[in-house]
């Protein structure tokens, strides 16, 4: 990987009242790469994603992001307003539950158009055209543009959430279990769609998943978490085909046995 990392977190530790969620985590993400964070439930994956995306301040640690102009942002010291601005422009977030990333009482087209308007787009006709185009890209019939997300299936809602997120071409997207809870066949289609869009737009992704198959399909690199620590990291094929840590070996063998 030639380019320098544009997201860099080090020494991130956080303790909740009854548990250690993160314990000295270090992670680097380069432009255009997909990094999967895998591990069993409670290992700290979602907490790490919230810290990286500036939604939560950990007890200790440092998170730096370098934007497209080369300006460095100290995410944990930034004001909420600055993080919100990054989230609107350079970043995107795809939630496990589509309702967290969509406005359910706004039409499909409105959901996509809103993000464009938040970035200064004003021309109604062009916004609607882009919304139509993005509905097509996520394989939703553009004739549904004025329908509300609550009339969509779970898989469609998730595809709409992805369209809303990607319409502004973010450089970095955080995804928290984007396919969990969907039917297996719907999951496979959605993963394939994410893979194609991410490659086409050359977006970097930090993907939290407990699904090793999803990590294999999408990720260039994998971090394996256990009890708040990164116990192994490396290129996807290396980690999954030749796991070094006993916990990774267990994780991989349990998938093969399933
Ligand atoms: N808001 C909170 N208050 C108290 N404890 C929390 C909170 N959020 C997370 N935890 C605890 O921190 C630890 C890490 O949780 P986290 O949700 O980050 O794990 P995870 O790997 O994402 O799990 P899952 O796959 O089940 O979402 C767990 O022990 C969890 O119970």
From TrEMBL:
Official protein name in the record: Phosphonate C-P lyase system protein PhnK
UniProt xrefs under InterPro entries: AAA+_ATPase, ABC_transporter-like_ATP-bd, ABC_transporter-like_CS, P-loop_NTPase, PhnK
Keywords annotated in UniProt: ATP-binding, Lyase, Nucleotide-binding
Keyword Iron tagged: no
The keyword Nucleotide-binding appears for this protein: yes
Domain ABC transporter: 7-252
GO molecular function, one term: lyase activity
Source lineage: Bacteria, Pseudomonadati, Pseudomonadota, Alphaproteobacteria, Acetobacterales
NCBIfam families: CP_lyasePhnK (TIGR02323)
Highest taxon listed in the record's lineage: Bacteria
């Amino acid at each position: 990987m030639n380019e320098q990392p544009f997201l860099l977190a080090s020494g991130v530790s956080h303790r909740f009242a009854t548990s250690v969620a993160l314990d000295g985590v270090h992670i680097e993400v380069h432009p255009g790469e997909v990094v999967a964070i895998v591990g069993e439930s409670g290992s700290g994956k979602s907490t790490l994603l919230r810290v990286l995306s500036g939604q939560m301040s950990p007890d200790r640690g440092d998170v730096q992001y370098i934007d497209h102009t080369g300006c460095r942002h100290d995410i944990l010291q930034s004001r909420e307003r600055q993080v919100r601005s990054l989230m609107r422009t350079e970043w995107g977030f795809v939630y496990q539950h589509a309702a967290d990333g969509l406005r359910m009482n706004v039409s499909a087209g409105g959901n996509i158009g809103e993000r464009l308007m938040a970035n200064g787009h004003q021309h109604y006709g062009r916004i609607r055209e882009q919304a139509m185009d993005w509905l097509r890209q996520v394989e939703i019939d553009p004739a549904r543009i004025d329908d509300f997300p609550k009339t969509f299936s779970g898989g469609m809602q998730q595809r709409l959430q992805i369209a809303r997120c990607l319409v502004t071409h973010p450089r970095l997207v955080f995804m928290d279990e984007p396919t969990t809870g969907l039917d297996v066949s719907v999951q496979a289609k959605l993963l394939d769609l994410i893979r194609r869009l991410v490659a086409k737009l050359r977006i970097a992704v930090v993907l939290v998943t407990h699904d090793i198959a999803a990590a294999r399909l999408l990720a260039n690199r994998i971090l394996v978490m256990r009890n708040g620590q990164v116990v192994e990291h490396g290129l996807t094929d290396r980690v999954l085909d030749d796991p070094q840590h006993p916990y990774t070996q267990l994780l991989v063998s349990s998938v093969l046995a399933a």
